[in-house]
Structure formats: C-alpha cells, structure tokens
Amino acid sequence: xxxxxxxxxxxxxKIKLQVKPYETLLETLRERLALTGAKEACSxxxxxxxxxxxxxxxxxxxxxxxxxxxxxxxxxIEGLKEDxxxxxxxxxxxxxxxxxxxxxxxxxxxxxxxxxxRNKKPSRAEIIKSISSNICRCTGYKxxxxxxxxxxxxxx
Amino acid sequence: xxxxxxxxxxxxxxxxxxxxxSQYNGEAFYLAGGTDLVPxxxxxxxxxxxxxxxxxxxxxxTITKKGGNLLVGxxxxxxxxxxxxxxxxxxxxxxxxxxATSCETLQMRGTIGGNxxxxxxxxxxxxxxxxxxxxxxxxxxxxxxxxxxxxxKACYSNYCGDNAPSLMTVDAKARIVGPTGExxxxxxxxxxGDGKEPFTVKPGEILKGIIIPLKExxxxxxxxxxxxxxxxxxxxxxxxxxxxxxxxGVTGIGPCPRVYELKEVNEKEINNxxxxxxxxxxxxxxxxxxxxxxxxxxxxxxxxxxxxIEKGGSR
Lengths: 156, 315
Prior knowledge:
The complex is a heterodimer of chains A (156) and B (315). Chain A has 156 residues and is an alpha+beta fold. Chain A has helices at residues 25-32, 88-95, 105-118, 124-131, 142-155, and strands spanning 4-10, 13-19, 51-54, 57-60, 73-75. In chain A, strand 1 (4-10) and strand 2 form a beta hairpin. The radius of gyration of chain A is 15 Å and the shape is globular. The termini of chain B are far apart. Chain B has a 5-stranded antiparallel beta sheet with strand order 4-5-8-6-7, with no helix packed on it. Chain B has a 4-stranded antiparallel beta sheet with strand order 9-10-11-12, with helices on both faces. In chain B, strands 1-3-2 form a 3-stranded parallel beta sheet, with helices on one face. Chain A binds chain B through residues 1-2, 4, 20-24, 27, 43-46, 48, 51, 57-60, 62-65, 67-68, 111, 114, 129-130, 132-135, and chain B through 1-8, 10, 31, 34-35, 38-39, 42, 51, 53, 55, 103-106, 108-109, 228-230.
C-alpha cells in the first residue's frame, strides 16, 4: 500500500514523515517519534488519555489519521516545558497531588492546557466541564480540578 | 487498536469527493471529524478501500445567516455551532442538545453532519470483530436474525444522535448532493426507520448543508445517561415551543428519532403526548439500562422538559 507524505510540526519541530494511510496520530507519536506521553487506553475516543493539542485545540489522537493533520502543529505533554522548566500545570499537578496511577495525567493536562488557551481564568464549573472530557479511575477528580485552578492563578 | 488497511484521499471540492467515491465503486467512506467513523472502522464493522477526507472542502464548513435562516455547513463542529450567537439566543433546545453531546474535546472535533448521520448502535453490534465472531453475526451485520430479540428478522438498534431530534423540532431541513443531483428534505426524512440501513441517503451522497429557520423559540433538551459526559443518550427528549404550539423529538430508542406535534401547550396535551411517546417507544435489551426503565423515562423526560421551559430554563 502506498504511503502518504506528511509534514507536521511536533512540539515546535518540523518533521517530515512517510506514514501509512491508516495510521493514527497516536501511533505516529508513540511509535515513530517515541513521544510516549500520550497514552493508548480505550482507543475508541471514550477516555481521553491520548489527548494532544492540534493547533492549540485538544483532540483525541487515537481518532485522527496522521494524513489528516498534514501541515498542522501538534503539542504533546513532552512539549509543554519551556527552557527546561516544567509548565505551571505540570507543577500544580505535582504540588496538589493530582496524580495517582498517572495514566490519565498527560491527557488531563493537555485538556486543561486547551482550556487555558481559550479561557485564561476559567471558573470552577468551566474547569469541571472541560475536565469531564477525560476519564480518571483513581482520584475522583477533586485534586485535578484544584490543580487546574492553581495553575490558572499562577499563570495569570 | 489498529485500523484496517485503507487508502487515504483528500478532496478539495464536492465534485472531487464524488469522483473518488465512484472511482472506488462505492467502497469508500467520507471522513469529517472521524469521532464516529474511526471507532466503527477499528471494530471492523466496515472495511472500505478508501477513506475520503472532506474536511478540506471550504463550502461545507461555513455558518451563514441568510433570509431568516441559518445555513450550516455539515463540517461545522458541534463546538463552533454551540458558540453561534443566533443558536444561543433563539434556539435553546438545539443549544442544549449540542452542549449535551459527548464532551467538549469531542465536540471540538465532531461535526454536526457526522452527528446527524451517525450509525445506529447496539450492545451486540458495537463490538470488536473477535467478539462478534464468537457471538455470531447479528441481522445488522448480515446474519440471519437479531441477537437481542431472538429469531427476529429485524434490527432494533438505537439511533443515538443528540441533535437530530432538536433539529426536527425547529423544522430544519437537510440539503443532500450526490451523483444524481441535489435535493432538500426535512431532517426527519433522512431516517428510514430500519435499523439495518438507518438512512434514506443513497450511496455516495453527501450532506451539503442544514437549513435552520431562525425564529424565537423556547425549548429544552433532556437526556438520560449513566455518566455525566461522554455518553450516548439512553433516551433523549427535545422540546421546542414556537408561537403557542410545540414539537417534541424523541431519540435513543429504536432506529430513528421520532417527532410529535402539540397544537397547544397545556397540561392535558403534554400528558397526551407523553403517553403517546411512551406507547410508541419499543426499547429492547440492547443498552446499559433496562428496556422498562428507558420506556418509562420517555414520558417522564417529556414532562420534565416542559416543566423546565415553564420555569425559564432552570432545573
């Protein structure tokens, strides 16, 4: 089967790839680019653990074909840190203890980043609504919501 | 989960998309948001030779106001549509159903066209190939009988779109374009009522636009789910009141959404319609709640929706 040429900007790095036409963005990130921060859990778009930012908007990378995002820019959890310093969201998740097993964490942080991109000061209700795009089976969400609140305060 | 093998083509115009569709003799799927299509492909429910990406077609993604109507391109995302001031101000029922669809992240990717045209669902159908092979193929997959209602030569899968019933209550129309030309039909005419082939669109046809009349309405959307988000309706009820009369749309039970009309809005009429919708609902054991409960909730949700409209939208 013919491969498809794509050029994508991943974490501010322009990358040219030859991918399978039926390859998902999650497969490309994890298996070709070794960016294993985005996790595969349900693989059907229900859980949100594969969330990455596509041109600043959170998307489920397991539901997107890599050929679809030719020319787009992708941000994964690995691309959040700046100058070797963790992003305020990552710090807040650590400080608030918003992590238990950690499998949902990268998806949660990317969803929260998407929210903060479009709304600098989200209310608690808005955070809960946004975070409800992702499933966490350990923490009960309380600390995750607190961490996002904390990060939005720090970033203001 | 790995996708089956297919080719990927990107269409820039509707003509190009139709052309590719015919080149592959119809063994093709149109891809917009992919939030419904990709899981179906991963489950091997369809094995197309090619997937035609229609996201690049500009005329399919615009939202414009024209002559008292809102013309919505089917590739507009649910999130974009939810943020449209005209919908927020005039069509509360549609706004609420858009808001209730899945979750924010999927609303940002999923399109209104794809949401309307999503395939019907069933606990026995939306499963992996291995699971379905072990169980034996059901009627919808090409087997002899239904796996839920034993020996039935019919499909009882549920249409789980949140927004089609709302669009039906606001008298929206759909414009369809295909190899044989263009036509405009009421949204309710998109549905065949047959779970095996839930839509009346012919092979290769593309939903080109949705025409929504912009009139002052009151409305509400009520949805029965087991989770707060990322869930299909186990029953969904859309109610729109306009000029003293009302329309009620019911989704989530059976292969197509149904619509009812109330000439006047009063308690007697509301109870009549709630009873009628209860009678018409024929749920079977193919969703995560029992059929008896889902059937009962149809009437309950209709009354609840009217009550909420009366209170000015609050619960």
